[in-house]
Amino acid sequence: MKTIAEKKGTFTESHLNDDYNxxxxxxxxxxxxxxxxxxxxxxxxxxxxxxxLKRLELxxxxxxxxxxxxxxxLTRLRIFKEAKRIALYYPVKNEVETRGIFKEAxxxxxxxxxPLVRDSELEFHKVNSLCELRPGKFGIPExxxxxxxxxxxxxxxxxxxxxxxxxxxxxxxxxxxxxxxxLGRILKERRVGLAYGFQVLDSIxxxxxxxxxxxxxxxSGIICPQGGG
Length: 229
Fold this sequence. Notes:
about 230 residues; alpha/beta; Rossmann fold; 8-stranded mixed beta sheet; 3-stranded mixed beta sheet; 6 helices; 13 strands; globular
């Protein structure tokens, strides 16, 4: 499968792919997926800068339109319909919207949880209304520490944000490692990444502590990776 061609400002999908492939050709004979943590980290940071900027260039109308399609795709899935406990993220920096997912989940009587940063870990606390959220450690709205907490292992669906994904379910986040420190505690098939089509590449670097998602949903459809950890 190919990613969506997306023209915006100075960036196009071909520009991004040319830049990405060029970095592999200029690696002085060293493979991109080297065991050296510094190489993997540097490439992740480069991709992170490119795709955060590209996402920030999206018009609000397009964010809303794509997010609506992604919401409909997710909420029609059996895994969503059968879920009793779902964790969402609060969207920032033009991430795929989750407020429509929240509304649909509430209408179906599901329990909904949002992440709260506690030291270097994420905790998931129950939220009945988005009005309960308040800016947390990074300015991202979080639930109250007094709301009921649920171990991640008991979640039926964990909706995961990301800056870049690939067709094998690999993921690059913002670099803090918060999600990677907890993803290994929940079955991969319960981890659902949300992204726009241009955020999904053929392949991205993976570190030893990284964890893949079991599914990536974009406005173009659902990607179900095979294999991997």
